[in-house]
Amino acid sequence: DQQVKQNSPSLSVQEGRISILNCDYTNSMFDYFLWYKKYPAEGPTFLISISSIKDKNEDGRFTVFLNKSAKHLSLHIVPSQPGDSAVYFCAASARSFGNEKLTFGTGTRLTIIP
Amino acid sequence: NAGVTQTPKFRVLKTGQSMTLLCAQDMNHEYMYWYRQDPGMGLRLIHYSVGEGTTAKGEVPDGYNVSRLKKQNFLLGLESAAPSQTSVYFCATTSGDWGTDTQYFGPGTRLTVL
Fold it and tell me: What distance in Å separates residue B42's CA from the closest CA in chain A?
């Protein structure tokens, strides 16, 4: 039972354009969502997060949008740069219910084409 | 300030052998986690700890044991390795403070079981 799903295993985007990565979840108790970025042979690094009381959070070139009714979130990267080529993981937790665990999606490999 | 370190970085075992993976953190975090990453599966939680002397099962705990005798260290043990345990193992930590679930990851241990 995959509670966090990233249905696109890979995505290619031209440099300078917008990259949009999508994530769906099924557990209604999830109230905090995070995106992680992972380069080969390294551990994942935190990118941006959003609480369920918001529908948007921005940090520089990165914006996360949350649609609670659709149980869907997306990560927008504008403009995309070659250094953004990595695997991106969506993760979710149920903090309001005392759940200190994260549930991760399967990841999307983003390739930025120069 | 090394953050989260993992020892060893690589290991090859034969079926039935045992080994211990060490995670060490210098951030004084309460919560520590062990994940495994397999192709197409994302990050799956094996065991975690919410403080020194405590451990709890995650999503895929079978075949693994853990110990948290010191706050800064979290050990993952394989008593009798199986080829199905071939994976990349990541340790992560978080402060556990309300308001953030950001987890900080180590660089990973690549384990091959023949």
Answer: 4
